[in-house]
Amino acid sequence: MKLLLALALLSSPVTTPTHEPQIDWHHCQLNPGDAEGAELDKAGAECGDLEVPLDYSRPYGPKITIAMSRLKATGDRIGAMVLNDGGPGGPGLSMPLRMRAEMKAAGTRYDLIGLDPRGVGRSTPIDCKLSIAAWPWAGGATRASFDRGTRQQADVAQRCTANAGQFLQYINTRNTARDIEQVRIALGERKISYLGYSYGTYLGAVYLQMFPGRTDRVLLDGPMNPETFGPQLLKDMGPANEAALRGWAGWAAARNSTYHLGASARQVLASVERIQRVAASKGLQVGQYRLDDGSVPLVLFGPLADDRDPARATYSGFVQTLLEATNGPVEPGPELGEFLGVLLSPALSQLVSAQIAIACGDRAVPRDPEVYWRDIQRHRTSEPHFASLVRMISPCAFWPVQPQEPLTRIANDEPALIVAADGDPRAIYANAGVLQEHLTGARLLTLRNARKHGIFGEYGNDCVDNKVIDYLLSGRLPDDQSC
C-alpha cells in the first residue's frame, strides 16, 4: 500500500489530501484591540482555522492556515455559502456581516462563510515589506518616468523574493480553489453555494471547472475575463475608464459653482490634463505626499469605479485639491489624505503583496520592458489619461518563479448567475459575454447605463437585487435579461 501511494503521488501533479480536514472553531476576537473580531462576535459569528497543504502536490508536506468566519442561518436553512470580495487577495472574514443585510430575505437562509484567502489577513500571510503599497504604478509621461517606474516594479519583485520567496510558487487561484474545496469538505456539505465579486468571479469559475457538481447557487458579480485574467488584467480597461472620466466631467461641469473645475466637460478635462502636466514636470505637493506622473494616474483611476452622486462628489473634491496643488503646496481634506496615506505608504503592504503574488502566480508575462513601453506609446492618443497606468510593466515581469501549473481552461455547463453593469470601468462589459461563453450553463443579468463595479447589494438597484435574491431563495436561474 505504501508503494502504491508513493507511485500515485509521483504520477499526479496535484493530489487531494486523503484525511478529513477539520476546522478549529473559536471566538473571533483575538485581543482587546481586535475590532473586526469583536464585531463578528457581537453578530453571533464564529471563527475557525483550517490547515491545508502549502503545496497540494505534497499533501503531507508543509501546512498553512486558512482563516474563516461563519454566520449561521437563522431561518429555514438552504445551505452554506462561501463569499469572496475580489482583489485578488481581498480579505473576506467580515464579509458575512455585510452580506447578511444585503441579501435581505435570503441572508438568514444560509450559513455565510467568510474567508481570508491563502496569503491574506488571518490566514498564513505573505508580506513583501513594500515601502509603498501602490500597485499598479503608472509609466508616466516620458521615457525617464517609465524607466523609474520599471525600477520600482523590479524592486517590488526583489522584496517579494527576499521576504516571501518560500510561498510565492503556491499563491495562485488554483490553490485557492482547492482551499475552498477543503472548506466544503470540512463543513460536511455535499454542495456549497458561492458568491464572488470582481476577481471572485474568476476564482468561482476556476472552482466550477476544477470541482464540477459541488455547487448549488453561484453568483458572479463584476465578471473577469477568464481568457485574460492575470498581471495584465487592466490592459483592456483604458477605454472604459476614459469614458467614465468623461462621464464624471459632465457631472462636475453641471456643478461648476461647487467644484470650480470648468463649466463644460471639455474644461473639466482640461483641468485634469493640467494636473497631469504639472505632476510630470515638477510634481504636486499634497500635504506630506509628493505626487508625480507615476502616482497621479492611479489617484485619478482608483475612485472612478462608481458613478453615484456621493462617489462623484468625493472624486470631484480630490480633483479640486490636485488642481490647487498645481499652483503650490496644499493640504488634503480628510478623505484624500486617508486615500493617499493608504496608497503611498506601507499600510497595505500585506494585502498588495498577496494581490501581486496571485496575479503573478497565475500567468507569466513578457519580461522585456520595451514591450510595455511600445504598448503605452501606441495608446497615448486614444487613452490619454490612463494608457501609462493600465499598460505598465508589473512586478511579474521580474518574478522569481514561473506559474506552478498551466492556466485553467474554463469550459463547462455548471449553472451560475452573472451580474454585470454595461459601463463597469473595472470589469468591462465584454467580459460578461466571454465568461458566459465558457460557462454555458450560466445566465446573464445586465444593469444598463451604470458605471459601477459591484452591483448586487451595493448599487441600490432594486431590479437587480430582487432578481438575485429570488435566485438565491429559489435556485431557479432567470433567463438572460436587463434592468
How would you summarize this macromolecular structure in one to three sentences?
With 483 residues, the chain is of the alpha/beta class. It has helices at residues 2-11, 35-42, 95-102, 143-164, 173-187, 199-210, 238-253, 256-259, 265-281, 296-301, 309-325, 334-343, 349-362, 369-379, 387-390, 430-438, 462-474, and strands at residues 23-26, 46-53, 63-71, 79-84, 110-116, 192-197, 215-221, 284-286, 289-291, 416-421, 442-447, 481-482. It has two domains: 2-127 and 167-230 and 406-482, 3-Layer(aba) Sandwich (Rossmann fold), CATH 3.40.50; 143-165 and 234-398, no CATH class.
What would you note in describing this structure?
With about 475 residues, this protein is of the alpha/beta class. The chain folds into two domains: about 1-125 and about 165-230 and about 405-480, Rossmann fold; about 145-165 and about 235-400, no CATH class. About 40% of the residues lie in helices and about 15% in strands. A ten-stranded mixed β-sheet has the order 1-2-3-5-4-6-7-10-11-12, sandwiched between helices. It has a two-stranded antiparallel sheet with strand order 8-9. Residues about 1-15 have low confidence and may be disordered.
